Amino acid sequence: MKYQFHTADVFTQRRFGGNPLAVIPDARGLTATQMATLAREFNLSETVFVLPPADPANTRRLHIFTPGRELPFAGHPTVGAAFVLAALGEIATPTVETRIVFEEGVGLVPVTIRSRDGAPQFTQLTVAQLPTLGAPPPSAAAVAAMLSLSPDDVLHEENAIQTVSCGIPFLMVPLRSREALRDAKPRADLFRATLGPSKTTEVYVFWDDGARVHARMFVLDPELKEDPATGSACACLGGYLAWHGRTPRGSTSTIRVEQGVDMGRPSVLEVEVDTAPDGGVTGVRVGGASVLVAEGSIYSA
Predict the structure, then answer these.
(1) Would the pTM count as exceeding 0.90?
(2) Structural domains in the chain plus CATH codes
(3) Comparing C-alpha atoms, which of 214, 209, 301 is closest to residue 259?
(4) What is the pLDDT of residues 270-283, one digit of tens each?
């Protein structure tokens, strides 16, 4: 059977930047095995398969696959799928802001679509699960070795390196300089062994210059690779920065994150974090622009 697909570059306003995404707007009839096969064929960081919602009160149900596995939640597929469906007219956007709800493995994910003259300009997800701390992290020395960095390149303060999850756990690794971020080269021979106790295969390394955050994301899935824009990691980063005093208490803060620059796919993600007066995180949203790139059809196995 033949299925229509569209690709978009997510978290960018220019084609061939951001994070590429394949979207099949009507995946009815595909099995999970067929979805996994098609995702391997596209060979992008993620492919989204869109189905009718289980609950008619919601907008769509999303299945998100990497070339190696299905994910319960991911940021760039969520905001990218909302953009593609709106751009195709599958989701009506009659007002400046349209609010929809996707069903994903992690639960219900609200998305806001901001439009101009009916055309989507910016899509923003609200996390279904607030950031939580995960398993204990490796030592700073072990992390530095895994990234081919000097131990002095990694912040050593107490709790500087933490595992954080909004549905998928990421090891958050703050660095001391932009140069260290540029020079990071993950070692495949150390990656799995170092991360095993932290129960993750995804590492978000970043440098905060006070005005914006510069970041890179490395993942072992199934091979070691770099991701140009990672919405789910940015959601975790929002919680991490709030816990570490980067955002004022009892307010909403917006953090600009630049990712993908060092791999030639510059991306910009906007993270909004709501905090209570006691510093607790009460809400996290991640959004950005997207652009359509290609369309076509593909046969199922």
Answers:
(1) yes
(2) 2-123+289-299 (3.10.310.10), 132-288 (3.10.310.10)
(3) 214
(4) 999 999 999 999 99
